[in-house]
Amino acid sequence: MNQVAAANRCQPTSIARSALFAALLIGWCWNPSTITCFAQESPTAPSTSELNDEPVKSLWRFRCVGRTNLETTVIRLGDVAEPIGVPTDVWTRLRGGVIGLIPVGQGRARIERDRLAEAVARSEGTDQPIEWIGPDMIEVSLRKQHPPSQSLAGPSPLQRLGDRLAPRPSSVQKVSAPNKSSPGISASLASTRSPVRQSTNGSAPTSMPVADPPSPHVVSRLESWIRMSVQRQNPELMKHYDVQLASSPENLAGFTQLQSAGGIMHTSFREAVLPPHEPSEQSTPIRRAIMVTGRGVDGPIDAQVVLQLKPHPMVVAPKMPLRRGHRIRVEDLTWVPVPEDQQRDDYSSDVDDFIGKEIVGLARQDAPLSVSAVAPPVLIHRGDQIELRVVGGGVRVTTMAKALDDGHLSQLIEVETAEPRRRMVARVAASGLAEIVTRSPRVR
């Protein structure tokens, strides 16, 4: 009974302890600040500033002209199209792009509008949407050139270059005496507002400034630029020719126009130039005129210069790689050009020096074949059992022998007979055959 009463007294105490422990545990773990709302927030709409950050592609428009007249044979994008809504810096780059050339002797050309779109894509490389307005076909005519006394089109490129290089006149110009050919020009030269460019009309031809000829340093620089441009645009043709600029008054005039250029943008031959394929087609140096387009400060500069093309010597080369021991045939050979500074004494342009001979050196495709890389074919090899023929006095004796050396046709080699074993010198007569020629006996 005492034990049961003691157990009943301890039971409320244990219950109270358990409740207190549970309350402490709940108070330690539960923190109102850590309670978060598990409801998913609705996505926020993008702000107006984020939408404005996306690039918006503007529409470029070009208006094609129906007909136009040019002073040069080079047709550019700025001559046949006008921009509408195109940035100024972009149009500055595009307007100088070459579209084509007016054929020599015809004086006119027709250009489709699709070629203009190709020129814009090639020059700018942009994916901007472009809208073309105007006719689908453009007619370009070459303006007839008149003498300076009857020209109304304005100054020539050489005169404009002289105006740009000449020093600017002061605000007030004084003329001591009027010119006889233009008595009223002295009054028009005096100006107090702004400097006036000198007249280019035919009434006063002596008043046009002429640009000084370029210095040797400028000429050397222009020659280097022109050669590099020609070689870059005609790589296959320039493998056959040495490009030099001819010494002529026409080239001096062209250099005078190009002396202010900062580079060469385009070169084109006025006549077709075909490379030679055989040494017989080579001739003296030829002269060809080319149109040169330079990069000027105020825009493209067009000029014409004359090139002197000197053909490179042609030498024999194999059409395909040839192995050692290969006997050369006619269909194995061709000709390749080699510059004069790369010529060697063992190069040859005559195929007869190689036909029928055997390759003993290096023979690569389209590489010059040297005479030292070939040799007469070996008809007898060392260790071969050959037929030995002894001829003399109308008697011919044949026996078997062993070759002790390699030999080609008509070469002397050493042989050894079988019975009896004797060594002697014989001449190679054919493949597997050697001969010994003796003198006929003389009767005294």
* Number of helical stretches of at least 4 residues: 10
Class derived from helix and strand content: alpha+beta
CA-based shape: flat
Number of strands: 23
**DSSP strand content:** 25-35%
Poorly predicted ranges:
33-54, 147-153, 164-209
Helix content: 10-25%
Main pleated sheet: 5 strands, mixed, barrel
Going across the major beta sheet, what is the strand order? 18-19-21-22-23
| Distance N to C terminus | 175 Å
Rounded to the nearest angstrom, the radius of gyration is 47 Å
Mean pLDDT: 73
GO biological process, one term: bacterial-type flagellum assembly
Protein name: Flagellar basal body P-ring biosynthesis protein FlgA
Main location: periplasm
InterPro entries: Flagellar_FlgA, SAF, SAF_FlgA
Give a written overview of the molecule.
β18 (385-392) and β19 (395-403) form a beta hairpin. The protein contains 10 helices and 23 strands. Helices cover 23% and strands 28% of the residues. The chain is of the alpha+beta class and 444 residues long. Among the domains are: 60-142, eubacterium ventriosum atcc domain (eubacterium ventriosum atcc fold); 216-311, no CATH class; 314-375, Alpha-Beta Complex (Type Iii Antifreeze Protein Isoform Hplc 12), CATH 3.90.1210.10; 378-437, SH3 type barrels.
Q: How does the SSE layout of this entry go?
A:
Blueprint: H1 2-29, H2 48-53, E1 60-64, E2 67-70, E3 74-76, H3 77-80, E4 81-84, H4 88-94, E5 98-101, E6 108-112, H5 113-124, E7 130-133, E8 137-142, H6 157-165, H7 185-189, H8 216-233, H9 235-238, E9 241-245, H10 249-258, E10 264-269, E11 286-295, E12 300-311, E13 314-318, E14 333-337, E15 358-359, E16 374-375, E17 378-380, E18 385-392, E19 395-403, E20 407-408, E21 412-417, E22 423-430, E23 433-437
Parallel strand pairs: 1-7, 2-8, 18-23
Antiparallel strand pairs: 1-4, 3-5, 6-8, 9-12, 10-11, 11-12, 13-14, 15-16, 17-20, 18-19, 19-21, 21-22, 22-23
